[in-house]
């Protein structure tokens, strides 16, 4: 999936008077996009929110984007068709990049089932993109089913449900893989923090 171009040719990019380097110097950490992908109920939003709390406690500028949040506003006009899923991720990727450009650590938790869409976001964010594969077997996710979505999908009450009636393409080379059927949330958070330190997005204490 290619990055879209503006519909109008009468546009000029705005250049901020404050550089990313200045923002990162004040923040004492680098801006980046942590992209959590995985099946519904794999633990994406849970880990993203707990990681945000841990990073915020360290003084980091952070923000979490997730499916429920953006579909109540930014993407409220989109359904769950393949076309709308592509557009949903494109919009979120642009917003996540803006947060990263502002020096934030943006934690984006989305099923984002298609590799092409995730690769598009990677291209947007460049070297500041970190793909986090929240990996849990479908059977485990169905047992958790906190919102009852799998049960509805199995009963044909929800169409195009990832893992049941719509495909999920797992990452081939994620920067971080978290097996939530084997790791606790706390362990997942610490694994993520270690990677951010290793890649020098944040400083080791």
Structure description:
This protein is an alpha/beta fold and 205 residues long. The protein has one domain: P-loop containing nucleotide triphosphate hydrolases (Rossmann fold). Helix content is 41%, strand content 13%. It has eight helices and five strands. It has a five-stranded parallel β-sheet with strand order 2-3-1-4-5, with helices on both faces. It is globular. The mean pLDDT is 93.
Write a brief structural summary:
By secondary structure, this protein is an alpha/beta fold. Helices cover 41% and strands 13% of the residues.
CATH superfamily annotation: P-loop containing nucleotide triphosphate hydrolases
The count of β-strands is: 5
Number of domain units: 1
CATH topology: Rossmann fold
CATH architectural type:
3-Layer(aba) Sandwich
Secondary structure elements and pairings:
Elements: H1 20-27, E1 32-37, H2 44-57, E2 62-66, H3 67-71, H4 82-101, E3 105-109, H5 115-125, E4 129-135, H6 138-144, H7 149-154, E5 176-179, H8 185-198
Parallel strand pairs: 1-3, 1-4, 2-3, 4-5
Helix pairs in contact: 2-8, 4-5
Search tags:
Rossmann fold, five-stranded parallel β-sheet, 5 strands, alpha/beta, 205 residues
């Amino acid at each position: 999936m290619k990055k879209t171009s503006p519909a109008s040719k009468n546009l000029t990019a705005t250049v901020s008077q404050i550089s990313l380097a200045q923002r990162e110097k004040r923040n004492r950490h680098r801006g980046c996009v942590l992209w959590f992908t995985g099946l519904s109920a794999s633990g994406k939003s849970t880990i993203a929110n707990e990681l945000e709390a841990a990073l915020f406690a360290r003084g980091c500028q952070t923000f979490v984007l997730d499916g429920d949040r953006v579909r109540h506003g930014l993407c409220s006009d989109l359904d769950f068709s393949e076309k709308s899923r592509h557009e949903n991720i494109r919009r979120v990727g642009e917003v996540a990049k803006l947060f990263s450009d502002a020096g934030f650590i943006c934690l984006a938790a989305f099923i984002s089932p298609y590799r092409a869409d995730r690769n598009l976001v990677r291209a947007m964010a460049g070297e500041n993109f970190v793909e986090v594969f929240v990996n849990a077997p479908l059977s485990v996710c169905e047992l958790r089913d906190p919102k009852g979505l799998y049960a509805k999908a199995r009963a044909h009450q929800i169409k195009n449900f990832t893992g049941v009636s719509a495909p999920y393409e797992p990452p081939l080379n994620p920067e971080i893989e978290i097996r939530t059927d084997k790791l606790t949330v706390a362990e997942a958070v610490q694994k993520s923090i270690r990677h951010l330190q290793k890649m020098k997005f944040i400083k080791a204490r």
